[in-house]
Amino acid sequence: xxxxxxxNLDDEAFExxxxxxxxxNKIEVVGEGVLIDTKDVIDHCMGVAIKEMxxxxxxxxxxxxxxxxxxxxxxxxxxxxxxxxxQEYLDYLNELVECGLPGKSTLYNTISRTCGKYPDWTFxxxxxxxxxxxxKNVFKQFLSAFLKEKRARLERMLENQYDVGMDIGx
Length: 170
Known about the structure:
Strand 1 (114-115) and strand 2 (122-123) form a beta hairpin. This protein has six helices and two strands, in the order αααααββα. By secondary structure, the protein is mostly helical. Helices cover 59% and strands 2% of the residues. A two-stranded antiparallel ribbon has the order 1-2. The chain is elongated, with a radius of gyration of 22 Å. The two termini are 33 Å apart.
């Protein structure tokens, strides 16, 4: 009869634990892998995307953060990411980035002046055609930066797994 155990180990405990297993001739390691917490990936990509947008001055006004929140809440970034209120969104951003964030009333006001679903948002404050397009593009550029970082992170992870796999065969 054989039994199977599944364990989660911190990186620093992995090598010592594997060393102990190698000493036991009746134990066979049939698989190992890296566990990635989806929330950590999303948080990382959010932080990188927001920082990039601030540095590139894509976010020109404090209210531009509202367009990002609205796109997120429409499920356009990740189905598990949703903010019940602007304050919850600001608290989340405060954990990720160190930049000037707007007040919650700025976000509430911007959300209340925006109608429809992205990319067909309309604005009741009657902005110029250029400004209306710029506002929609804030979310579009955020999504692009978010997905670019997510792909880059995945590629780095796959490269690391490939490098580890190559070391095993030596």
